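Here's my example:
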Amino acid sequence: MRNEMTLSFVAIEENEALARMAMTCFITPLDPTLEEISEFKTIVSEAVTNAIIHGYESDGQSMVTIHAVIDENKVTMTVEDKGGGIFDVQQAMEPMYTTKPLMERSGMGFTIMESFSDSLSVESSIGNGTVVRFEKTFSPVTEASRMR
């Protein structure tokens, strides 16, 4: 099975839930386990929140775009903003690093995304925005695992 979608929305914090739910609905045909759904929703949430808070400084006007492709049992997804960009991507991906300590941001977003995905990459350019790309493979659910 192959499927593809694009979703764009205004960069406001309320739309993080919209993105998370829309993407969860999109992967439903893969028959994911509850654990896989939870991990996937967390990745989406972290990537979208970063775009809203860090990319656009929560400006409430700019757009975040998600593009996702299902190919067999693998999802490839990008979350893109056209915001301020990341000055040092490598540093931003270090655990506990945050540019928003006053907002009580933990600095664990990229670490969490990496741990729940099969691969994660971040491309960013100052003044031009950031693209977070990840892949996640879903295990086929067997009848035996359904009955547990």
